[in-house]
Amino acid sequence: MEILLDTNIILDVLLNREPWVKSAGLIWRAIDEKLLTGYIAACTLADIAYIAQRLKDQATARIAVDICLQTFEICPVDRRTVDEAIQLPGRDFEDNVQIACAILSGVAAIVTRDCAGFQATPIPVLSPDEFVQTYLV
């Protein structure tokens, strides 16, 4: 199964954010074990680098990006993606870009803690807990 992970799920694992790290970590482990294929939008890498550098330092930011590059498939954010995102009815452009990435990549689901921000998608949207209960238990 191929899924797109929202930035918040990646940060929950990288920053060990309680209480969300448990479910996010189970999903990440399933990706590491090749039970799932995880996708992230290319712009997620920039967000992760920015947040990691702000909270820690540049070396930590580079490590975080490298870990993501080793773990996830990267959805390009190009003209086609942005054109698709602009056409979506959702009000949050960042979320629309991720939805467009999911649509163009053909993933089966989007996993996010912000399900309300992803209502404008034809792709199923699940919280990490819902995903774990539905697919990993």
Q: How does this structure look, described?
A:
With 137 residues, the protein is α/β, with parallel strands linked by helices. 58% of the residues lie in helices and 12% in strands. It has seven helices and five strands; from the N terminus they run E-H-H-E-H-H-E-H-H-E-E-H. It has helices spanning 7-14, 21-32, 42-55, 58-71, 79-87, 93-105, 128-136, and strands at residues 2-5, 37-41, 73-75, 109-111, 125-126. It has a five-stranded parallel beta sheet with strand order 3-2-1-4-5. The two termini are 15 Å apart.
Keywords, separated by commas or semicolons:
137 residues, Rossmann fold, alpha/beta, globular, 58% helix
Number of helices, where a helix is a run of at least 4 consecutive DSSP H or I residues: 7
Amount of beta strand: 5-15%
Query: How would you spell out the order of helices and strands?
Result: EHHEHHEHHEEH
Shape-level CATH architecture: 3-Layer(aba) Sandwich
Gyration radius, rounded: 14 Å
Count all strands and give the number: 5
For the largest beta-sheet, the strand count, sense and barrel status come to: 5 strands, parallel
The CA-CA distance between the termini, in Å, is 15 Å
CATH homology-level superfamily: 5'-nuclease
Task: Please give the order of strands in the largest beta sheet.
Answer: 3-2-1-4-5
Broad CATH class: Alpha Beta
Overall mean pLDDT stands at 96
Number of domains: 1
- Helix amount, in percent? 55-70%
Query: What structural class results from the helix and strand content?
Result: alpha/beta
How would you describe the shape? globular
As for the CATH topology, it is: Rossmann fold
